[in-house]
Predict the structure of Beta-xylanase.
Amino acid sequence: VPGLNDLAISAGKRYFGSATDNPELNDTTYTSILENYAMFGQITPGNSMKWYATEPEPGVFTFTAGNVIADLAKSNGMVLRGHNCVWYEELPDWVTANNYNATELAAIVANHTGTLVGYYAGQMYAWDVINEPLNDNGTMREDVFYDTLGDSYISIALKAARAADPNVKLYINDYNIEYVGTKSTAMQNLIKQLQADDVPIDGVGLESHFIVGEVPTTIVENMQAFAALGLEFAITELDIRMELPATADLYEQQKTDYYTVVSACMQVEQCVGITVWDWTDKYSWVPSTFPGYGDACPWDSNDMLAHQNYERKPAFDGIAIALQGQ
Ligand code: G3I
């Protein structure tokens, strides 16, 4: 079987890729699979470019961990997606604890975003400049940024990113916007407002954390709605979890579900690529966040007792078949 990235590129997409995280890179079996351009043509740092990791103290920037991921991408010729500039989670305490006023916080958001994006200028294909700004009911999430600045924090960050790197694609990334519904409509309205206000915005990240047997049926229709806004989008964090224990039937359904998502991207030209939120169950975020769920990735773990050794699951074939347009 050819690699998934090779198949994606043959099909006219920019990449098939994966998230990864610094601790995982000590696992040489893991890296031997990850560092194969035919399989993974794109990398997203799972954690090491987040705010707490890059500006732990006011104005004190550290790119050491981020650079490990950026260098891995560069040495393998992989596309890099930056993740992320402004997010309500994983903030260092100083951002939230100081009760900054609007003028102060606006400068902090602009400086954080501009410094981060500027540091990696020329190395990134895209940045998730704004991460998860919406509530599931479509209203703006009331985090420190919104509470202090209203929705102006979004344009402040996007403009700072554009000024710092005129060539990188600027994305807003979120979940539960992968299907037709209130939250997707709200994201489309946000994009339209930014466009009307001449705020730079190039793309939308559809995270795509799904559940086996519950993959939405309106993914293509929803993608077409984003495409109609005149911007690109990507599947940025794909995984499809199941309630454990895994069974052969669940694996087959998961194969179908991966097929459904990847083939949706194949059907809409403006879907530029697909990123899985790590390729192996060993390093998936799912079990720690959703107790009783797991097995969300296309490769299994490397638990030799369970006869697992980073084997491809049926989900892998679902992806490969979709990428071949079958
Ligand atoms: O680094 C510390 C380590 O020192 C400590 O011993 C350990 C104990 O819990 O925690 C480690 O930090 C964890 C970090 O991942 C690195 O592994 C945090 O607790 C944990 O909360 C953090 O989870 C990450 C989560 O984002 C929150 O930032 C996940 O790995 C990461 O996969 C997840 O990714 C998010 C995307 O950024 C946005 N979309 C949703 C997606 C899944 O939640």
